[in-house]
Every structure is written in structure tokens, then in C-alpha cells.
Amino acid sequence: MSEANWYVVHTYSGYENKVKANIEKTIENRKLQDQILEVTVPMQDMIEMKNGAKKQVQKKMFPGYVLIHMIMNDDTWYVVRNTRGVTGFVGPGSKPVPLTEEEMKPLGIKPAEVVVDFEVGDTVTVIGGVWEDTVGEIRKIDPHKQMVTINVDMFGRETPVEISFTEVKKMDF
């Protein structure tokens, strides 16, 4: 499986938040959480003077653009490219070009650090999704994808299943 990178998507001006919401809804509907990891509209705090009073507001850093952290493949390209309000990926022709680490630093976007209270070998209960109420033992933790692999009993056999950090809860004994 290829690595996730940050890509820039051009949108109609003023549609950035709508595009973000639409892509996030599609990710949920098509179960692409492991391929499209994050969608963001970079914002910055600014001080505005209105009627002689200072007011702190958030403004878009790049109007008309949305950043997406994803694994590029035909499915993810199609989903993003065909989202209402998206005019295309930034890059030559139809080939999206990922942002480099140097280009990401000034944006202040860092991978979200998730602190979990479980480790390999712990027994957890799945609290959401298709496997809800399933109990399993953690076999692997992938902090980059924010997923755990647990073994579940399916048709009398132990089967590994990947589940998001947010959908598991450590069992208290």
C-alpha cells in the first residue's frame, strides 16, 4: 500500500467548507477512512478593526483551496475530483502533485498526535461501525493510520480486522 501525502484541491471561491463537508460525508458513506485521512481548510487568526474596536477573526489562508491528506489511488482521486465544488487537483494536467515536508511546515499542519490507553494484547470492545459490540484482542496498533488490528471470531476462526482508534474502548476487568 502506498503512503499518504498532502494534496491541494482547487475549489470554487467560498465553497471550501462545503467541499470539506461533502468529502467527509463521502468518506463516511464509502468507508474510505483508511485512504482519505484528513480534509482541512487552513485558517489563520487575524485582528480586524471594525467601528474602532479590535476583533479577532479567522480567515482562510488560501481562499479557493482545500488540503487533503490521502493515499492517492483511482478511487480516492475519483471521489475528490467528482465532489461538487471541486475544480481539480493542483498539479500539471490531471496528475496531482503531493506537497513536500518543506511546503507543509509553514502551514502549521502537523499530524494529529493521538494518545491511546491501550496496547498490543489488551482486550477491547468495538463501540461503533459494523463490528459494534464485538470483543477482540489487539494484535497491532498503527498510529499513522490511527487504526488497531484486532482478532475477531468469525465462523469459528480468528480473523484480523482493522478498526479506527475512535471505535474501540478498552475493557475494564
What descriptive keywords fit this protein?
173 residues, alpha+beta, Alpha-Beta Plaits, SH3 type barrels, 2 domains, 5-stranded antiparallel sheet, 4-stranded antiparallel sheet, 16% helix
What's the pLDDT, averaged over the residues? 83
Please compute the radius of gyration using only Cα atoms.
20 Å
Query: Percent range for helical residues?
Result: 10-25%
Write out the CATH superfamily name of the largest domain. NusG, N-terminal domain
Series of H and E elements: EHEEEEHEHEEEEE
SS content category: alpha+beta
Major beta-sheet overview: 5 strands, antiparallel
Coarse morphology: globular
**CATH class category of the largest domain:** Alpha Beta
The number of helical elements comes to: 3
- Number of domains as seen in the coordinates: 2
What is the CATH third-level topology name of the largest domain?
Answer: Alpha-Beta Plaits
Task: Characterise the protein shown here.
The radius of gyration is 20 Å and the shape is globular. It has helices at 16-30, 74-81, 101-104; strands at residues 5-11, 36-40, 43-50, 53-60, 65-70, 86-89, 123-126, 135-142, 147-154, 157-164, 168-170. It is an alpha+beta fold and 173 residues long. The mean pLDDT is 83. Helix content is 16%, strand content 40%. A hairpin with an 8-residue loop joins strand 7 (123-126) and strand 8. The protein contains 3 helices and 11 strands; from the N terminus they run E-H-E-E-E-E-H-E-H-E-E-E-E-E. Strands 10-9-8-7-11 form a 5-stranded antiparallel β-sheet, with no helix packed on it. A 4-stranded antiparallel β-sheet has the order 2-5-1-6, covered by helices on one side. It has a two-stranded antiparallel sheet with strand order 3-4. It has 2 domains: 5-107, NusG, N-terminal domain (Alpha-Beta Plaits, 2-Layer Sandwich), CATH 3.30.70; 123-170, SH3 type barrels.
